[in-house]
Specification:
The protein is of the alpha+beta class and about 375 residues long. The protein contains 10 helices and 21 strands.
Length: about 375
């Protein structure tokens, strides 16, 4: 096992959060030497990191006070103390993430320390989720379903008025739904910088986050992907609704999308190839005459049919390995993946359904427990 160096904070760096399951907002040095985990950081964080089973070293252990007294800028002082820490811990050759700071890498290499950026090493070591991460994903998923319920309640209460929808006499807008969803996220300890609450033609436009007043009889796509504050793990789910009478075209979309979802989930298991699962979903749409990324001409840019991948890994990032698309990926036990087929037509809209699935040695465990009906 190679030695490992990471310099980052655990709020934004999933590679580090996987090793140190504590929210630390400021960058610190993580050292894995002979299989033992060390953290070099301010004394302010030592107790919390130690409680997570990491050997936490305060900066003072490596001459921080002496270095500060030299009058250098803080950034230079930090580089000097990190050089001392790496040498003191006996690291001479280590793998680092591709995001490792170039300035620090140059300083360590100048001291004769060999550093090898290794993307595959870090991506693969956090592929199989540990128990705490799976529990965090489950928690985030339950909160996501509660937030979906809050939005669905508003949709159920909506009344038609002059071609728009109102609730308690006020227009029902994407923004109003987002506020209700955010309130529930807060109650469940979840946070989301963004979410998709789109309506009408917006629902056929990729990651259009949605805006404006919602009309009767049009598609409404809710794609929610919040993060659990405690674990740092994400959930991800999508449902499509209509208030009023769903157009026949959308009803057909929903039928085919649900069939593609079901067939794809059945195929999930350790060793399954992501592209082959993607092909299963695409075949449903091919049989019905809709284009996909597998049927289009080389170089063609699709704006209709099933024009995106089938799914992706979810964990400390909302989009991570493995991929269920044209990219090569093979599933392993411990993966958590989305399955999110959809059908779309410009100027009309679309339908997407998305479930979150844990891959176990015995097959798929669907972590999403929520109905698929178009009518809220």
């Amino acid at each position: 096992m190679p030695d490992v160096l990471i310099y980052a904070d655990t709020m934004r760096a999933p590679d580090l959060r996987h090793e140190v399951p504590v929210s630390v907002p400021d960058p610190f040095l993580y050292v894995e030497r002979n299989g033992v985990k060390h953290a070099v950081l301010t004394s302010f964080e030592v107790d919390r990191v130690s409680a997570a089973g990491i050997q936490a070293h305060p900066l003072e252990e490596f001459g921080w006070d002496e270095i500060l007294a030299q009058g250098n800028p803080r950034e230079e002082s930090m580089l000097l103390v990190l050089e001392r820490a790496v040498e003191a811990l006996g690291v001479t050759d280590a793998v680092v993430p591709t995001t490792f700071p170039v300035e620090l890498a140059d300083r360590l290499r100048g001291k004769g320390i060999q550093l090898a950026p290794d993307r595959e090493f870090f991506l693969e070591r956090r592929r199989a989720k540990n128990e705490a991460e799976i529990e965090g994903i489950r928690k985030a998923q339950r909160g996501t379903e509660a937030a979906m319920d809050a939005a669905r309640t508003l949709l159920r209460r909506a009344e038609t008025s002059n071609g728009t929808l109102t609730v308690d006499g006020e227009p029902l807008t994407c923004e109003r739904l987002k506020t209700a969803i955010t309130d529930v996220f807060n109650e469940h300890g979840l946070v989301a910088d963004e979410m998709i609450v789109a309506h009408g033609a917006q629902t056929a436009v990729g990651h259009d986050m949605g805006s404006g007043a919602i009309a009767p009889n049009e598609p409404i796509v809710l794609d929610l992907f919040p993060r659990d504050r405690e674990s740092g793990c994400y959930a991800d789910m999508t449902r499509t609704f209509v208030v009023g009478d769903p157009p026949d075209e959308l009803v057909e979309y929903q039928r085919l999308v649900k069939e593609a979802l079901d067939r794809s989930i059945e195929a999930l298991k350790p060793g399954a190839v992501g592209r082959e699962v993607y092909t299963i979903a695409c075949d449903v749409f091919h049989e019905a005459g809709y284009p996909t990324q597998l049927s289009k001409e080389e170089g063609e840019v699709l704006d209709r049919g099933f024009y995106h991948g089938l799914g992706h890994g979810v964990g400390l990032e909302v989009h991570e390995r493995p991929w269920l698309s044209r990219d090569p990926s093979t599933l392993i036990a411990g993966d958590v993946v989305t399955i999110e087929p959809g059908l779309y037509r410009p100027d009309f809209g679309g339908c997407r359904l998305e479930d979150l699935v844990l891959i176990t040695d015995d097959g798929p465990e669907n972590l999403t427990q929520y109905p698929y009906d178009l009518k809220p």
